[in-house]
Amino acid sequence: MVLDDLMPLDDLMVFDDLMVLGDLIVLGDLMVLGNLMVLGGLMVLDDLMLLGDLVGDLMVGDLMMLDDLMVLGDLVVLGDLMVLNDLMVLGDLMVLDDLTDAEYLMFVGPPPSKANKFSFGQFYDDFSKLLDDITLKKGNLLLMGDFNIHYESACKPEVKKCVKLLESHGLTQLVFEPTHRNGHTLDWIVARHREDVVQDILVEDRQSSDHFWITVELSFLKPTEGPVEVQCRNLKLVSREDFARDLQSSKLLTEPSEDVNELADLYNTTLIQLMDSHAPCVTRYRRLRHEPQWYNDQILLAKTHRRKSERKWRKTRLEIHRQMYNMARNELNQLIRETKSRYYNDNVFSNQQNPKVLFTHLFSLLGKTSNTTLPNVDDDLTLANDFGKFFSSKIEKIRQEFSPESIAVTGARFQGESFDSFDPLTEEQIICIIKQSKGTTCTLDPAPTKFVLEYFDILLPVFTQIINLSLKCGTVPGCFKQAIVKPLLKKPGLDSTCFSNYRPVSNLPFLSKVLERAVKMQVSQHLSKHDLYHKFQSAYRSFHSTETALLRVVNDLQWSVDRGELSRSCSLGLIGRV
Fold this sequence. Notes:
By secondary structure, the chain is α+β, with helices and mostly antiparallel strands. The protein has 14 helices and 18 strands.
């Protein structure tokens, strides 16, 4: 077969009907069995086994470039793919990585036989290792191809093992019709349990092969197109000296009110006025960019360098420029791998004592990010009001079910020192509470929390006075009772049109949470001092958590077993529905 302008036919090697054309394939310890066919601009390698390192590139025109290739098994290249970087094939599995936000795997599994020395055990081990790696990656996942396993024969041991393997990795097989003319389901499409990526599957016999055509309709969420209108303040332009001078001369510090509600309202209005004066709110339009948090300037420069090298090579077609492009591309890929690994490792190790943040990162790595699902309505204001009415009525119904008469008091009453008032807090205690609080900002806050804490020495007397006035009169300021309520589905997959399937999550102003901590601190001290905590209480108690409760249960069971006693466990789950 002769292709014009492809190569000079020098150093031609022929192995069993194989024609190696010039420099098209760079050989290094290469052993080839099968036939090589070149069809138009598409190259198909059929029954190809490469043993050793294949150094260099396989390139056909501008259609396809395969770099850093390692092949064990059969390789089939399908589709109009332009560039596949770092392509890896393991046991007839072809992984196309970093093409889109989704992860695709195309599979070609030859039937086990003595001729190809391919066994089901070898396939199972390779497939299991691949799933261990690929299912840990975030994003959508789709496996498709010829598995050569009769899925319709559910009683066969190999089918059971494969199905169990998929289920253990949170995957499911979606093709249930025969995909072969002999009535077998050999071609599989596998996706995660919780994802609705595959919308429809159509199996057709087009008489073009012994395998049927499978058409799959996929659904992927596209990022919002076009610029988005945002309201923002440029805090970098704020003069810290001028802001501090205006804050000290404001009525908040010169004429503070003795009423807790008036003082809290004065705090909010004063900061809002100062923010509008020094950093007025402006409307800007920005395009949404879905850049990962590990993305940095070093990677951006490496991408720019790679792109320049690629353009130069495509323009000149010189071997030296191709090698320069390959080097730039490999350096970028290595930099991305190292940066991602370092970012996730640092997050995991730095949050070992913070389970909430730790599991948030782990779920993100596993692709278990929770997307906000709300009923589809045309008017957002009507939906917000409907949610507000539902949650308010639910609270009222719960209150009606509880009355002072219905609460039975068991056991001896506490005869010690009663807790009938709160003690005023010192500025040192307020400092300790604020340092223990997270610097998060709520939409209801008059200014960003981090910005406010820059003037902490000026506002500390105001914070102390608001907290002590609230504790003294036993009143929570009205503005502290307001919250941004976000409805979340209790479990994935529940009916999003039913309000009872949602739970409200409230985001409170920063000072409101400081007041909560101040109250909790004194209540906890009283309960601990007089040993009023229940023996097995773990919630809302220092040095207690779900982990300590589970450790106690396991410890008691082990002690019971050691003493030869019979142990039973009873779990009770209370779910309130209104």
